[in-house]
Each structure stands twice: as C-alpha cells, then as structure tokens.
Design a protein that fits this description.
By secondary structure, the protein is mainly α. It is built from seven helices and no strands. The chain has one domain. About 50% of the residues lie in helices and about 0% in strands. The longest helix is centred in the middle third of the chain and has 24 residues. The radius of gyration is 19 Å and the shape is globular. The C terminus is likely disordered.
Amino acid sequence: MASDPGAPDWYSHGLNRVAYYRLATAVAAALPRPARLRLARGLGRLLSRALPAERRAVRSNLGRALAGAPPALIEARLRETFANVGAFFADLLTLNRRPGAALRDYVASAEGEHHLDAAIEAGRGVVLLTAHLGNWEFAGRLLSSRGGLSGLGADHALQWFNFFDAWSPPGGPA
C-alpha cells in the first residue's frame, strides 16, 4: 500500500505539541539561565521515561559507540544524553531569539575562525558542514551576525531560524 502523500514526512512524538512549547518557553523565560539549565537537565532525564523508543535508540547507539562498556556506564551516558537535550531545548527556546551579536557571550571557545573569516572575505560563499551535536539554530544566529555575509544578508540568514516565531511573542523570551 502506498503511503499517504498528505502525511507529514518528519518524526514526531507525543511531547511535540505547540502547547508544550509555549509552556516550556514561558517557564524558561522566567528563570535565570543557571536555574533554567538545571531544571531543563532534570526534566530531560525525567521526560526520557515518556519516550521509550527514543531511549532504546540512544541506548543502542551508545552500545555501538562504547562497545564493551559496562551496562552501568551506558545507562549513565543515556541519562546524560537526555539531560543535555533538555539543556539544548531550554537554550533553543530562549537564547537563539537574541540578536546574533549578543550570542557570542555564550560560546565557551571557537577554533579556526580565521579560516571562516578568510572564506567570507573571498566573497565566493561559505559552506559549513557540522554534525548535529548541539544547537545549530543558535549557530545560525551567531553566524548571521558576522560581517561580510552580504551575499546572504542578515534577513535571509535569519529566516532559517524563525521556526518558533509563529507562537512566540515578538522578540521572544530573554
């Protein structure tokens, strides 16, 4: 039987609902970042229990990546993975709404930026490849603030990162 052409082509789960995003945004915006991240990490660990298929997938991947590791280590890494997703999500809902130039304060370190600057200066465009290991929406906002991206223009670059604007107040939460 052919698949329904009107069905969405992306993955979803029961927690992926606008009402939950709105609630999470309101709570995240009301807390200072250290408290927000502690709460988000704890909720990430807790909510992972509501996502058994995701837990199985992460456990399987960790088992391959940490081949031969004791089960207790795999479980500890599993909990930390979901804690990190919680922290990422809290930042997604708050920090990436700030202007790109303001985001630099949240970057611990960067290596090789001189290569990026040289490529931008050459004016032929830049292609960035990355593993999806963090908040790439944040990275896009940060990159859009760099000088010399006139080929894209800040408005064009930022259009990729306005996914949540339909249900968020203008300017987003702080």
